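QA checklist item 7 of 12: single-chain prediction sanity check.
[x] sequence parsed
[x] length recorded as 318
[x] structure emitted
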Amino acid sequence: MRIVFCGSPEFAVPSLKGLLASEHEIIAVVTQPDRPAGRGLKLKPPPVKQVAIEYGIEVFQPEKFNTTSFLDRIEALEPDLIVVVAYGKIFRRRSLSIPRLGCINLHASLLPKYRGIAPVNWAIINGETRTGVTTIFMDEGIDTGDIILSKEVAIGEDETAGELLSRLAQVGAEVLVETCNLIARGEATRIKQKDALASYAPKLTREIGLIRWSEPARKIHNLIRGVTPWPGAVARVGERRVKILRTSISSDACGLPGEIKQVDASMGILVCCGNGGIWLKELQAPGKKPLHGADFARGYRLGIGDFLGEGSFEDSKG
């Protein structure tokens, strides 16, 4: 098939490379415009664009996808299929009608659960133990199209959103290539989603990552995992804002919320929560490198009986 691939972030790269290694032809790549990044705010191309350039594929980077002029250009390519992986644009009726075999999307959840922009994050935040990937025929709704294939994946006890997303990118690439092969042979099934079972994964905000030590340890642990690496889980050491990067649940009895109960060279800093405690295994102060919990405690002179503050963006330092 002649395929137009739409995608932008690192998550989409394995899917693009998988299709490039398949019997199908990628005739163009559509991705987000280059954006300023880093301290120098230099324009940085999306990861998908970098791969496309490496393979000599034509790249389009429209600010708006559904304009008549841009869709005319895509239509002129006469694609058999449009494949969408984390592109970040809504497809309207004309967009969906351009390829003769339709538009398909790879989504990082087991639909209809976690429709929306941040399915991996919310699955972890909500304490799910399993998730997966799903391919669908796109319609005008958000992740509401008919299901073609899905594959379930277990979520690790201490796995972060970034780590899980990397695993799902690889699994998703395999499922996507298989999906395209089925479509090319005319063997792709269509399974209607059960809307009554749907849940949603809205966009993350920085405020979601603010830690409240009065909440149960399990809930805090899941939150930290779900917002790592972005937007990050935030607590306070004195007046300084600190990111918590990695944690594990403690089975030990604990004291008051936010109280440091133990500092261990291997496990890190044991902090009490509203119910139970968690080990802070890796932390990062603003502008500094990540540190193991014990090294952080030593550097910031934290010990048993000290308290960590709750997350805030009003701190006077960092």
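[x] summary fact logged: Residues 206-299 form a domain with the Methionyl-tRNA Fmet Formyltransferase; Chain A, domain 2 fold (CATH 3.10.25.10).
[ ] second reviewer sign-off
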